[in-house]
Amino acid sequence: MALLLLSRRRNWDMRINLIDTQPIGQWDVSEKISQLEFQFGKLLIYLQYPKGTSASSELQAAQIQIQHVWGDIQNAINFAETWFRTKHPEFWSAWDKAEDPRYPLIAYSIAFSLDEDYPCYYIARDPGYEFEYSISDPFDLWQKDRIHIELPFFPDTDAIAVYRIGNDQFALSDSKCVPSKNWR
Hints:
This protein is 26% helix and 30% strand. It is an alpha+beta fold. The chain has one domain. Helix 3 (73-87) packs across helix 4. The longest helix has 16 residues, at 56-71. Residues 1-9 and 180-184 have low confidence and may be disordered.
């Protein structure tokens, strides 16, 4: 179990400073909303603000909570796992039986939207996930040989949006919580 927990951990203790970090992108989402895009590690952070204004007040509001939101990423992924287990029971049944499988879910982004009260995580299968795993050969008394088995496939396009409504408190979102269809 300790090995499994270690495989799920990432650098969630990274210090995030939205105010002093240069965004990697900026665009208009609609005629009323603009959006900034930041990247910390592999994770993207989207911040919306009223078009034609400075983003400073939204940046300051997001900065107040971003460290807590960042620190809760793994808890949000764990929350989302229930949805994935329901949608892909064959995969998870095989995954639960595998020896030391790599964890398949990742958070792609965190979004701070103008029309939402809570920050939102976009969670999906890691596109680089390897579906092969190995088990011990029951006939190998020395346990030197491994048997390689494929886990059932599920697409990385299956994704879920999860709101963070408090410390370690989450709710499923009916929106995508990713940039608008008009992005870039």
